[in-house]
Write a structure and sequence with these properties.
single chain, 226 residues, alpha/beta, Rossmann fold, 2 domains, two-stranded antiparallel sheet
Length: 226
């Protein structure tokens, strides 16, 4: 593909640097070998969420992953978001069958206009480029603007997202047997479950969720530090 050749030329002219230490990046995406080895990787699938057949995250949401996500999300650092997508593509296992659509969790158009881009879409874009999967940010949209989830508890998050999403391309969705939803961070799962519900209602039989990072519950985080 053309974009593959362009990326190869740009990498030859401007060798990529590690997002964390600034040294030359290694063979895998945006990090050097040392930083790559030090990242807080997750290996096993996560506990199931309502509506999903499989839930996976590549990394724990802790330093330095939290800094990278914040730079992408709030610092308008598109290259960082794409680098996180490369890490996701490298870490996630092969699927028995490729998804019919890879859908980034949509932002409301007002928030996307303020932020300048949807970080989940940039993550998903790199994942699809690496895996050769169809990126479909157009099939689902956020129809109601909601307050930021980060300031809310689990129950409030679910109430906040009720009726926030809708299928935008029903003809395409009805032909999908497997939809892969992609986001930057999984916390309570409220956002993912809200999106899953509209795909379930549209008749999609299989849904998977991949995120760059996972925020463990407080009791899990405390247990890991003991």
């Amino acid at each position: 593909m053309v974009w593959k050749r362009v990326d190869q030329v740009l990498d030859a002219l401007f060798p990529p640097r590690c997002l964390l230490c600034g040294q030359a990046a290694g063979p895998v995406g945006p990090a050097c070998a040392g930083c790559l080895a030090d990242l807080p990787w997750l290996d096993a699938p996560l506990a199931p969420l309502a509506g999903f057949d499989e839930v996976r995250s590549a990394l724990r949401y802790e330093y330095p992953v939290d800094r990278l996500v914040a730079a992408a999300k709030f610092g308008r650092q598109v290259p960082v978001a794409r680098g996180l997508g490369q890490l996701l593509a490298w870490r996630m296992p092969p699927l028995p069958e490729p998804p019919d659509a890879v859908v980034p969790v949509p932002l409301h158009w007002r928030r996307e206009a303020t932020r300048g881009f949807n970080q989940a879409e940039e993550v998903a874009r790199c994942l699809c480029q690496e895996r050769g999967w169809p990126l479909r940010p157009d099939v689902c949209r956020r129809i109601r603007q909601t307050p930021e989830q980060s300031a809310l508890g689990a129950a409030q998050r679910r109430d906040n997202l009720r009726g926030a999403f809708a299928i935008a391309d029903a003809r395409s969705v009805v032909r999908c047997r497997h939809v892969l939803l992609v986001d930057d961070v999984l916390t309570t799962g409220a956002t993912a479950e809200a999106v899953a519900s509209v795909f379930q209602a549209a008749g999609v039989p299989r849904l998977s969720l991949w995120t760059v990072a996972y925020t463990p519950a407080p009791d899990q985080a405390a247990a890991r530090k003991v």
